Every structure is written in structure tokens, then in C-alpha cells.
Amino acid sequence: MEPGEDLHQTACRELREEIGLTDIVLRRPVWTWLHRFSYNGTPTLQHETIYAVRLARAVEPRGAPGELVADGIVSARWWSLRDLARCRDDVWPHGLVALLPQLLRGDLDPEQPADLGYE
After folding, report:
1. Listed residue (116, 71, 72) closest to 94, CA to CA
2. What is the pLDDT of residue 59?
3. Which residues pair with 38 in a beta bridge?
4. Cβ(49)–Cβ(29) under 8 Å?
5. Distances from the Cα of 44 to the Cα of 36, 40, 71, 92, 119, angstroms
6. Are 84 and 97 spatial neighbours (Cβ–Cβ below 8 Å)?
7. Which pLDDT tens digit goes with each residue over 60-117?
8. Has this prediction a pTM greater than 0.85?
């Protein structure tokens, strides 16, 4: 988050900066969780708020050259549920493949994001 931004503004800015989406309707967040990891050798505890966006077309990440790699992103692709279920790489939040059917069916509380806990 940049100074003065709320969660919604931050999510819209990130979508615009990282994949060039400007014509989206961003609704409420669907999940939250706490995630412990190391970033540039610094232990980090991050509170993440996850939004879902339905797209009519696939788009590619468009960060500045080296910018995505600097953030540890070495590749990007779109996944089918089947491919995601077969994936053996780390995917966050863990258990995402089990959560997605609820999201796609619309079985989430429309008022409150689901808390996925701490990892």
C-alpha cells in the first residue's frame, strides 16, 4: 500500500501497474490471511487481502523489465483448476485449489472476506 491508499485503491493500482488492467470492476475482498516469509533476507509477516477479478480475456504481466524478477516473480501463466490441482510448486495461499470452487459458485459471504488464518 502506498501512503493514503485504502485496500481497494491499492488493488486497482497493482492491477494497473502489473498487468495493465484499467477497465475492471473490483468488488469486495474474498479472503484474508497472514503469511510469514523472507523478503531479501528479512523475515516478514504480511497481512494479505485477496480480491478476485473475472476477466473476459487473458492478459500478460507487464511490469518494467527486471521489476517482476526483482520481486521474485520469474514466470507467470494462467492456470486451469485441473492444472492448479496437479501443480507441485508452492502456491499461495496454500489450499487455493480447494477454495476456488466456492468462489466460482459464489458460495462466499458477500459482506465479509473469509479469514484463511496464518501460515
Report:
1. 116
2. 77
3. 43
4. yes
5. 6, 10, 14, 15, 12
6. yes
7. 766 665 666 776 667 677 888 999 999 998 888 888 999 999 998 988 888 889 999 9
8. no
CA triple 28-72-94, angle to 5 deg: 50
- For the chain, the DSSP string reads --TT--HHHHHHHHHHHHH---S-------EEEEEEEEETTEEEEEEEEE-----SS-----PPTTHHHHTT--------HHHHHH--S--SSTTHHHHHHHHHHT-S-SSSPEEEEE-
Is residue 49 within 8 Å of 27, Cβ to Cβ?
no
Q: Which of 106, 103, 105, 41 is nearest to 116 (CA)?
A: 103
